[in-house]
Input
Amino acid sequence: MKVTELREMNIEELKARATELSEELSRMTIQLALKRLDNPLKARSTRRDLARVKTIINEKIRTGAVQQAPAVAGRGKKA
Output
């Protein structure tokens, strides 16, 4: 999945995708240990896709937190 497609998704969809990838990666890890995985490089790409999804989730959360931060930061300052 491309990064542009991931950025268009909302946080709930991204979290669902992260759960799917995490489950898929755990299955692949077991198959890899048993030498039953047809394409071992698929585990690497799945791990990287999961990292991309988690990164975009964190970016979206930080963007939302940054937009609210100036209003909260103004209260704590001393005059």
